[in-house]
Design a protein that fits this description.
two-stranded antiparallel ribbon; globular; 26% helix; alpha+beta
């Protein structure tokens, strides 16, 4: 991805520059899975697929200091306007629904007791379990929806799989 899209989610990370990139569009290693998911959402929406969930698992990289590079395994999850008809009513798509789905996922791994969602900006939250920050949750604002050419309401989460696995294997 080009640098202008990569910095939209991790404003405070420095990207790792590739010494011999295949193109200008691919001159940095990704520091987040979320821009790729947002682009996939735009692709789907342009083909009239409007109500879906996507996920991707992969490695992200960033520069910690001048001589220290970091990487972690992440999972990105995207919800695109998942309002749907229930047998009686329409079930609305919002942050509460997404937090409920994430909490249900964490609880299936035995991590449901101490989840904290802390608002960091108007449209984003940090997610912590047992005091360990495991990721972020974003409700795409109009600027990001326009940047990725998305018209549906879209919510994304990025979770650090390495930390989640270590929390699951704690005794």
């Amino acid at each position: 991805l080009h640098m202008d899209k990569m910095n939209l989610f991790n404003k405070y990370r420095s990207c790792v520059k590739i010494s011999n990139p295949l193109s200008n569009e691919m001159e940095y290693l990704r520091d987040s899975i979320l821009p790729g998911l947002a682009l996939a959402s735009s692709y789907n929406e342009k083909r009239m697929n409007n109500h879906y969930k996507l996920f991707e698992v992969g490695t992200v990289h960033w520069v910690e200091s001048e001589d220290k590079y970091m990487q972690e395994n992440s999972i990105g999850i995207l919800w695109s306007d998942n309002s749907h008809k229930h047998w009686r009513d329409t079930i609305d798509f919002d942050l509460s629904m997404v937090k409920g789905e994430l909490s249900s996922l964490f609880s299936r791994f035995g991590l449901g007791d101490s989840i904290v969602y802390k608002e960091t900006d108007n449209d984003s939250f940090s997610i912590s379990i047992d005091g360990s920050r495991i990721g972020s949750l974003y409700s795409l604002n109009n600027k990001l929806l326009n940047e990725f050419e998305i018209s549906n309401g879209t919510i994304l989460a990025e979770l650090n799989l390495d930390i989640l696995i270590s929390l699951c294997t704690k005794e």
